[in-house]
Specification:
The protein is of the alpha/beta class. The chain has helices spanning about 15-30, 60-65, 80-85, 100-120, 135-150; strands at about 5-10, 30-35, 50, 75, 90-95, 100. It has a 6-stranded mixed beta sheet, sandwiched between helices. It is globular, with a radius of gyration of 15 Å. The relative contact order is 0.16.
Length: about 150
């Protein structure tokens, strides 16, 4: 069995979450790749790398989908990207700690589309809540649960 990897949709990933990912990658020696359309700084590590893709709509997402393998973990708040990687047999984890599954992703896509429709109709829907310490802890806990299942 190939080693699992962690892929990070890094353009919108909060810095505190990246720090948690970096520590976990080093501790567990898991290859981790951040993908963004801008230059990213990563700590010196043989397990952590950053890939800069061209600017454009969903270019980073397309790169992740083309590279992800079954069993890998993708960190993303992008629900359509999460759906695509789940279809490929990978897992998707939101930076707020929600692990998307085949059972929940359809509901998340439907809600996203519904809210997008409201916004398109001119209805103010507000944005997500500010990123909190509880979100950070939920993410760290969910990442630890995922990594506990990884052989090695």
């Amino acid at each position: 069995m190939a080693e699992i990897q962690i892929w990070v949709d890094a353009d919108a990933c909060p810095g505190v979450i990246k720090e948690i990912i970096f520590r976990a990658a080093e501790r567990r020696q898991i290859r981790t790749t951040l993908v963004a359309n801008q230059m990213l700084r990563t700590p010196p590590s043989k397990f952590i790398r950053a890939i800069q893709v061209a600017h454009g709509f969903d270019v980073a997402d397309a790169h992740i989908v083309s590279q992800v393998a079954p069993g890998d973990l993708v960190i993303t708040a992008d629900i359509p990207l999460a759906a695509l990687v789940i279809e490929r047999g990978a897992q998707a984890l939101n930076p707020r700690g929600e692990l998307y599954t085949t059972a929940t992703i359809r509901e998340r896509l439907n809600m996203r589309d519904f809210m997008e429709g409201l916004r398109a109709a001119g209805i103010e829907t507000g944005g997500p809540a500010a990123f909190s310490q509880a979100d950070r802890q939920a993410f760290a806990n969910q990442l630890d649960r995922f990594l506990a299942k990884v052989p090695g």
